[in-house]
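Honest question from a wet-lab person: if I give you the sequences of every part of a complex, can you actually get the arrangement of the whole thing, not just the pieces? Trying it with mine:
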Amino acid sequence: MPLADEFTNSVLALKLVEHIKTALCPEQPVRLMEFCGSHTAAILRYGIRQLLPPGIELLSGPGCPVCVTDQSDIDRALYLARVPGVIMATFGDMLKVPGSQGSLAEARAEGADVRVAYSTMDALQLARENPSRRIIFLGVGFETTAPTIAASVAQAAEQNIGNYAVFSLAKICPPVIKALLDGGEVRLHGLICPGHVSAIIGTEPYEFIARDHAVACVVAGFEPVDILQAITMLLTQLREARPRVEVAYTRGVMPIGNLHALNLMSQIFETSAVSWRGMGEVPASGLKLRAKYAAHDAERLYDIPPIPAHEATGCICGEILRGVKTPADCSLFGLACTPAHPIGPCMVSGEGACGAYHSYGDGRGG
Amino acid sequence: MEDRILMAHGAGGRLSHELVVHLINCLSTACRNNLDDASVVPGAERLAFTTDSFVVTPLFFPGGDVGRLAVCGTVNDLAMSGATALYLSLSLIIEEGLPLVELTRVATSIREAALEARVYIVTGDTKVVPHGAADKLFINTAGLGTVPEGINISGAFARPGDAIILSGSIGDHGTAVMAQREGLRFSGDLSSDCAPLNNLVAAMMTVCPNIHTLRDPTRGGLATTLNEIAHQSNVNIVIEESAVPINPPVQAMCSLLGLDPFYVANEGKLVAFVPEEKAGEVVAAMRHERYGAQAEIIGAVNAQPATRVTLRTPLGTTRVLPMLAGDLLPRIC
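Yes, you can. This is the full assembly:
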């Protein structure tokens, strides 16, 4: 059996479901949060809620880089995309995120040169091929993407590709998890943490979750068997009343993480307080280019004026990102706000809670 | 002839004439036209008529090119109404500067696809536009076919109790073109499934003249086609996800880019709705055909909940399978 098939294997999955049913104490319902949008999408795509006994609540967290990009940052990206001579390179799912004055897709239709890149190396190549233009890569992403952004800046500096710049909106996950738990709006028993982030940062940055908040924590992969295994491990931790950080994704995660990627990130980036949509400003959660790389930093190269923000009325993306509400609570969901005409960012990405609910239903079946 | 297309090739003079003669020579036996303004062809009482335009970047991709696509696309549109495709028109809009060798390669490919599909090109046109006014080569084909008595196939005729048959793997064309266009390198072979399906449909109609619905899931993929049929026929469609064949390289590319193969384009696949009692026979007949070797029953039709497509996952759970919204866009992580 190919490796990938093992983790969608229905026999294994159903065995884990039996474990979960035995491990769950019916009198003590548990509330778990999947931090990451890829987990939200997988849970809905495979209908995992239908397999779980009543008494396990799964909340979607803020782990979708598109969704948490603050509207003011989208507005600033739009400003940069419209500067004459600029080519803005971006991952595809940022194109449709609505800012106060349209989206990058709309800016492109109006004549801005916005190109979809599959990797930062594509953007760097674009810079080599267009020496008379300024290429600005829209650097959105978490720890999974940040090392590739860092690598592009390092290469641009080494190879003197002076027309390559990054508008860094990259963010890191542990500080926002801390803000979420400190905020106390939602009482959680356990957290499913993203395996791909831990492939880079390891497990140490999550220790505070169990130590300071007594919340169980399991790092998980993205196939149904991975997610069910993580839920099983969380329930075991809760039954033993011994919250800790465990890994259910040992094929992808080493506890120390990826030192090469971490070194590259700290060479290029420094942390900074940045705004998350729905969360406000979170200390030390953003990655900005160090002063040494100012020549490749779009924020330093361009004087972006303050742009008055207009948040869409009725949109509850912020509350959805904090786990306080679900897409079903939104009066715009599926009516005024659809993937074809998104009003809030959670509807844009397939990894956003609203986008995933819209694509796969509410998880109660088709 | 010059080795690049010039504006003069579209000016109506000697070069235009040379270009048309060159193309007719390339098309060879697939062409029935003696340079008259229109062709006179034998007719029939029940005609099917369709047209489609083909604009693809790049012109050549693994498994096909814009020429093969232009023949197969129109032949397949005819076949999905149960028509026997007979004649095609061929209209080329050529960007100035296109290397003649590329145009010749496309024309040769058109000939091969037409001969395979047993259709003749009976009329055509060429236009040359200035550099930048078109992207290398745009092709329009229209197709004419005859529909035998007693054949009534439509997206509106799916009925509760029908079995749903898919002729083979999904997502091959869209992933092959995207990988070629974007210069993505994957191990394993991504190849377009671009193929004429009229011979396959003929074999199906021989064992089951009472096919209710036929559709080739092109842009928007299988999911979009199924939704269109669910709406047109006002029925519920249930699909077994694990019965739908997906080639491993296609699955791998989709997983990496965050695409869903159910929404990726096909150019050589069909989905058929047939009375359940005939399904086994139809599948057996399809598997004898070159483009139906992987045919599978992938689902069934229910009355309710009408207009909805339901997917049963490998875990036995269910979810809705909605229509594609907007473009397929690669994601961040």
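Two things worth pointing out. Chain B has two domains: 7-146, 162-320. Residues 100-117 of chain B form the longest helix (18 residues).
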